[in-house]
Write a structure and sequence with these properties.
With about 240 residues, the protein is mostly beta strands. The chain is built from one helix and 19 strands.
């Protein structure tokens, strides 16, 4: 079993990625149904069919994103044979994680074994709209900040958590009516490196109640609570 994800709006619906399949559970009706299945190619018989999966925050809750080898695919849960869209060869190596921008439709962020963090517009799957290669090893987790989506967290086997700004492709970059000095957008690039972990950092999550706090978990079982540096916080809110 790779992951279990509750539907973003329907409390009785959840998706499970297991045995190379995406299975939808309806708790109210006690029913299950397979909505997607990925078979490894002959050259990849020993590779996992799906790495993980996540519900789309948009598309009326009908799409579920999956990671398969180097590719990103979205399935419409209303049609078990329908792949809504795909990004082929999104990374040069295995894609480990993805997150959906809650504030900007069609934008997702991915991280892979090539050490890259990329933001994609699923309507233009040929090339990422934003890309950084600041990690020295596999990227295990990537997360958009729920409130200020120009802030992206990534964690890696290089024992680091990175805070990156993708302001040029964020929802706050479209505030053209505001004067330049009032736009709450930082310059694109690496903002901060958090290197307090001594082992691979497998998970990183933003706080649900405070947009400036996040937690990270490393292989040795160490959990750290960290904050966005004040200079970046003030640049955004003032």
């Amino acid at each position: 079993m790779k992951t279990v994800e509750f539907h973003p709006s329907q409390k009785n619906t959840l998706a499970c990625v297991v045995d190379g399949k995406v299975v939808i559970f309806d708790r109210a009706e006690s029913q299950t149904r397979v909505v997607a299945e990925a078979a490894a190619s002959n050259a990849q018989k020993n590779s996992p069919s799906f790495t993980t999966g996540k519900w789309s925050h948009h598309h009326q809750g009908h799409q579920f994103f999956t990671l398969h080898d180097c590719n990103v695919r979205s399935f419409d849960i209303r049609d078990t044979q329908h792949c809504a869209w795909s990004i082929e060869d999104a990374h040069n190596q295995l894609v480990r994680d993805l997150d959906c921008n809650p504030n900007k439709q069609c934008h997702i962020v991915t991280g892979g074994d090539d050490g890259a963090v990329k933001v994609w517009d699923c309507r233009m799957p040929k090339e990422a709209v934003f890309s950084r290669n600041d990690h020295a090893h596999w990227v295990w987790a990537v997360r958009f900040n729920t409130f200020h989506d120009q802030l992206i967290l990534s964690s890696s086997s290089d024992c680091k958590v990175l805070l990156t700004c993708a302001g040029s492709v964020s929802s706050e970059a479209s505030t053209d009516a505001l004067p330049e000095e009032r736009r709450r957008v930082l310059s694109d690039g690496l903002l901060q490196t958090f290197d307090q972990h001594e082992d691979s950092v497998y998970c990183v999550e933003w706080s649900n109640v405070d947009p400036w706090i996040f937690a990270s978990l490393s292989y040795d079982g160490r959990v750290l609570i960290s904050k966005v540096p004040k200079q970046y916080k003030y640049q955004i809110i003032l």
